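Hi R.,

Here are the chain sequences for the assembly we discussed:
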Amino acid sequence: MMEAFGFLLQGLATAMDPMLLLYALLGVTLGTMVGVLPGIGPALTVALLLPVTYGLDPAGSLIMFAGIYYGGMYGGSTTSILLNTPGESASIVTAIEGNKMALAGRGGPALATAAIGSFVAGLLATLALAFIAPSVVKLALIFGPREYFALMMLAFVTVSAAFGDSAMKGLTSLFIGLALALVGIDGLTGQTRLAFGVPQLLDGIEVTTLAVAMFAVGEALFVAARIEGADAKVHAIKGAVRMTATDWARSWKAWLRGTAIGFPIGAMPAGGADIASFLSYGAEKRLTKYPQEFGHGAIEGVAGPEAANNAAAAGTLVPLLTLGLPTTATAAIMLAGFQQFGLQPGPLLFVTAPTLVWGLIASLLIANVMLLVLNLPLIRIWIKLLMIPRHWLYAGILLFATLGTIGVNPSPIELVQLTIFGLMGYGMRLLNYPIAPVVVGLILGPMAEQQLRRALSIAQGDWTTLVSTPLSAGLLTVAALALIIPMLMRARGRGAVLSQIAADED
Amino acid sequence: MSGNSPFTKERRPNGAAFAIALGLAALGALLIWQGVVIPDKGGYAGIGSGAAPKAVGGVLIVLALGHLWTGVKSTALPHPHQNWAAIGWVLLGLLLQLFLLKPLGFTIASALLFACTARAMGYKKLHIALPVGLVLAFVVYGVFDGLLKLNLPAGFIEHLIYRG
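And here is the predicted structure of the full complex:
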């Protein structure tokens, strides 16, 4: 406990470096921007920026990426409330009550409770991250290949099959990702697989190319294909962006509950921020003293989910930093960001690069304060972004999407991949297949394969090694239950609740 | 516009499920075939380089069967009308950029992509979209190639102005 505090203070000293502050500011500004803009989320933005940051400072770039993740969670609420179009998937529930509040002329308090709730949750969850991380690192040191393998199986199941409207669709997405992950040179034997003599495929399929294609190109195609009629209407904010005493009284408990729900969900491989926000909405609906207001603009229904999605975003960093295990698409791309600088997140990173890790965690606290300023007094500037016509917005998104790919590797092969995966992303959106499992499968697939083969080598080919410790057996059991129970629920017609909590991109 | 073909209105039931089943089966078969043909010394418990492709391929085949089953059992949900012309415009933009990137440079190729995407989103004034795209792509080139040292393909515009 005390050692974490000391590390955090050192981290704060690191994070106060003017350059790093600038990176954090850049990150949270970009994050808020993409959060506000419908159609682009944090996963896509980090993917677009990865190639751009090759030549920059690793610590600064990673701080910027984390700032984008946090900022995206803040900004998403604005679009949900004012436009009824969630800016990113974790803000879908915010739209339910938030937009009703805006319609009733209470857009100001809705935006305020979302921003302050995000701040409270972000602050508490980042502190929780700082205090939990050292213990998880100690635990992780006893992890062997079989435990890592079991943990990855759990992550696979929760990302793909546990939520959403069909386990088969989620698993299909996951296995497409796992199939793509096999392309290139096998890390253990050096054997080339599925490259078919194309030299550009020897390094495998780039995570950034896949993510940019599926999120940017796929989304652009999807939006273009259903263009009919005019853009949605933005509700003007009437009155000030502040809350009355009653609003405060009704919000603060919802913030704390949202944080308590969101952080563990993010921290355990149990799904991303969108799932946390749905569960928080459900909890608020059950506990409220004003049930008649739900569905007509209850402030708790904005406060809880917005706190939950920020807390979950911070929670996601626990497995990412301590175990090197990404559990959401954004985390998967951030992992690619670490690897780009030759850093491997995991217990060792806390030993080999403590300044960087603690600087990153501490800068998130600072980023939170910046975000509060960006999202309360300056909210009207962001709303102007919603006035950008859709055709300029998407034309710009595609230009930047191809820029990233061309910048890393200006070979036609990459651009062909971008187009093919873009079409695949469009088809998957059209037919309701989740996108995130493809990206997570691509990045976790090779790691899971290596851990399995290592575990079997250590045990000299004895498969029972996978369940020979209570930890690995327990994790595999939980993974199996997370696969089977939702299937039974759907079979018995109780699947509606699961398809609501569909994990999407963030 | 070609987007109004009757095909999109009266979609044959389950067409999508069967098509996906076919695609998954093909991908699965490809993986299993590759898993079998690559040199594999086996490793412990037969888990070498070829094992993962075979396993993933096997699951893909099972998923293909699952899709076949869904295709037989259920009727497909009616699709929202899809504007195929718009998709064509985005793809045209991507292809133009792909083929013109080397000969004409980043600025012109990307401006064409920009204009085509704007057209796909319903903005029909190409004489405005193209110059806007040119200016944006030109500025982007300057910032990313000049300041951030990203290596973007240069054409005559870039040579003329940035290196001339």
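The first helix of chain A runs from residue 2 to 15. Chain A touches chain B through 64 residues (CB under 8 Å).

Let me know if anything looks off.

Best,
T.
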